[in-house]
């Protein structure tokens, strides 16, 4: 009885530990406020937001309940409007957007500054009376979670910023016209914020929805890995600092489109560095990077006529074997063959700022090309220095120094011997045969189309203890919208 209670307690503690454990996504796309500003600005342009401002029905707006329902004031206002033939926006521009974290850090505040010139025509003067109008629209970006638990980003609470409206006369005219202009401006003070909320806010919300949908599309663009490809997909969003974070799942597919590996949230650690001055970063968990490299370096078999291709290396190998068994060394002919078998996919090992690739290699030596059985078979635990670099938006990998960390005698036709005696020769063979072959396969690189999709030409990279981080090498942000 006590044993069952103990078992139940242990299960409960284990379950509680798992619940508290932080599950890390396979990848994280972090976007700074600068990227959000640039893309939202472009979407506002696509939605013709400036034209919406130019079409604001100012005259009809000030005519609707102009005096708050007070008859005497209503008559006075109507008498003012009788002198107005038309009233409209003559030019408008959307200045540089601002994206800032909210006071509680749970939302992002988007500020859209508006700069407009409105004019009205009156029989009192032949020229158009112009007014300068400045105001600001404010909205918030937040995470919305449905009843099913699905999360996405929304933009809401769109309205005119309190106290941001300023209206002034551009050019002073006669006393009578100036007095009329002041009355018109007083009428616009309550009318313009309502117009902006009803006419422009829906456009801003639609622009954000399209921007968000476009971001989700670009993260789903397949990443080519020779005949295989890697695909990311959206998991959930977060608000982090002054930007947004898209948590991604991943899957690896073969040439037939069959999923060979799924990557989801797990207890595998993922350190997501802060953006700093970078416009965006893509942080990819170590196991996903490892699978991508493994797809570029599948299991294979290499054979080389050593004496023809690398005669000096063949001579040194023969000398090393002679120390072990002179008779066996004398059997090595001109057509001796070295066979290298890679039976398992490599494993990427990350450290802060550096990386290595571990491989299990089988090496066989045949005395001639007609020999059916190898002279001996060695199992080699090797490690290779991995150097990442970039070319444009491509992430490249080059393998450098190779080390035979451990060598095991798997099979021998010349009796037992210490395989470490052949370490130098084995290392040279792997450096001369295996390394160029694998670097040739890695030469195509991994094209990070996400970099160009976000508006940048070149990528940069860095390594943490558990992830590869891709950032842009340069930035080029857009300019304010304007139309006259």
CATH class of the domain at 33-218: Alpha Beta
Structural category: alpha+beta
Strand content: 35-45%
Q: Give me the Rg, rounded.
A: 35 Å
Quaternary state of the chains: single chain
Cα separation of the termini:
85 Å
Indicate the low-confidence ranges by residue numbers.
Answer: 13-20, 66-76, 475-484
CATH architecture of the domain at 33-218: Super Roll
CATH superfamily of the domain at 33-218: Bactericidal permeability-increasing protein, domain 1
Organism: Rhinolophus ferrumequinum (Greater horseshoe bat)
Domain Lipid-binding serum glycoprotein N-terminal: 36-248
InterPro entries: Bactericidal_perm-incr_a/b_dom, Bpifb1, Lipid-bd_serum_glycop_C, Lipid-bd_serum_glycop_N
Signal peptide: 1-21
Features:
Bactericidal permeability-increasing protein, domain 2; rod-shaped; 484 residues; 38% strand; alpha+beta; Bactericidal permeability-increasing protein, domain 1; eight-stranded antiparallel sheet; Lipid-bd_serum_glycop_N; single chain; disordered C terminus
């Amino acid at each position: 009885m006590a044993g069952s209670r103990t078992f139940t307690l242990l299960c409960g503690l284990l379950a509680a530990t798992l619940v508290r454990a932080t599950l890390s996504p396979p990848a994280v796309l972090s976007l700074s406020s600068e990227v959000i500003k640039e893309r939202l600005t472009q979407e506002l342009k696509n939605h013709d937001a400036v034209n919406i401002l130019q079409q604001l029905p100012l005259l009809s707006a000030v005519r609707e309940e102009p005096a708050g329902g007070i008859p005497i004031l209503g008559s006075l206002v109507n008498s003012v409007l009788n002198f107005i033939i038309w009233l409209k926006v003559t030019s408008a521009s959307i200045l540089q957007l601002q994206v800032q974290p909210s006071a509680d850090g749970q939302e992002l505040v988007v500020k859209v500054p508006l700069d407009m010139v409105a004019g009205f025509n009156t029989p009192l003067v032949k020229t158009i009376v112009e007014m300068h109008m400045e105001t600001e629209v404010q909205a918030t970006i937040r995470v919305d979670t449905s009843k099913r638990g699905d999360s996405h980003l929304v933009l809401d609470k769109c309205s005119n910023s309190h106290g941001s409206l300023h209206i002034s006369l551009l050019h002073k005219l006669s006393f009578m016209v100036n007095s009329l202009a002041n009355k018109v401006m007083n009428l616009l003070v309550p009318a313009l914020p309502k117009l902006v909320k009803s006419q422009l806010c829906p456009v801003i919300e639609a622009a954000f929805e399209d921007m968000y949908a476009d971001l989700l599309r670009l993260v789903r663009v397949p990443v080519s890995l020779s005949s295989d490809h890697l695909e990311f997909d959206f998991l959930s969003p977060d608000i982090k600092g002054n930007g947004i974070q898209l948590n991604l799942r991943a899957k690896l597919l073969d040439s037939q489109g069959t999923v060979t590996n799924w990557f989801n949230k797990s207890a595998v650690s993922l350190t997501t560095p802060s953006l700093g001055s970078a416009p965006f970063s893509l942080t990819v968990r170590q196991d996903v990077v490892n699978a991508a490299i493994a797809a570029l370096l599948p299991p294979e078999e290499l054979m080389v006529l050593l004496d023809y291709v690398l005669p000096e290396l063949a001579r040194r190998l023969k000398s090393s074997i002679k120390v072990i068994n002179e008779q066996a060394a004398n059997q090595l002919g001109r057509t001796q063959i070295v066979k290298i078998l890679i039976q398992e996919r490599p494993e990427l090992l990350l450290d802060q700022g550096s990386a290595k690739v571990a491989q299990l290699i089988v090496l066989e030596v045949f005395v001639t090309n007609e020999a059916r059985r190898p002279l001996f078979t060695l199992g080699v635990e090797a490690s290779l220095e991995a150097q990442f670099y970039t070319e444009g938006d491509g992430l490249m990998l080059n393998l450098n120094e190779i080390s035979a960390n451990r060598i095991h005698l798997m099979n021998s036709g010349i009796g037992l011997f210490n395989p470490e005696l052949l370490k130098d020769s084995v290392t040279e063979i792997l450096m001369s045969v295996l390394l160029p072959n694998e670097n040739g396969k890695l030469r195509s690189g991994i094209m990070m189309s996400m970099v160009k999709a976000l508006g940048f030409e070149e990528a940069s990279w860095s390594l943490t203890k558990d992830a590869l981080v891709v950032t842009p090498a340069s930035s080029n942000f857009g300019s304010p919208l304007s139309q006259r």
